[in-house]
Hints:
Blueprint: H1 31-45, H2 53-62, H3 71-79, H4 88-97, H5 102-108, H6 125-139
Helix pairs in contact: 1-2, 3-6
Amino acid sequence: MRRRGFVPEVDEDATIGKIGPDFENCMTLSNSEVRWILDEKTRVEGTFAKKCKAQIATERNLKPFDNFKTEESVKVMRSFFSEIPLFDFEITQLANLSPDDVQEARALVPSINVLYGGRERSITDDELNDVLIKIQSAESIAE
């Protein structure tokens, strides 16, 4: 029997930054970092090693969203994580989605608009614009 008006507490809601206990202490990876790991796996195992279906599908699905084309650009993007006043999963989302401007970034990653998880203040539009500029500069690095 259900009680009227009872709303169960939600463990996960990314729009407000509740990513769930399974992901709270995990390092997030951008699409480019996943591609980089898979490329390294292929290099170590050899070009002719048999790939599983999941790896083939993952590589195919990552290709259109691989914003950081070089190892150096991936490293530069990762180095920003300690400088930017956002949580790692938010920076990863911005890196993967590559929004054009602050308004698009706030719409695509709504959790950056919410105070939670020890975040002391909201990120300003100017700060968020600086984050987007840093991400875009890392995307343009070529070896």
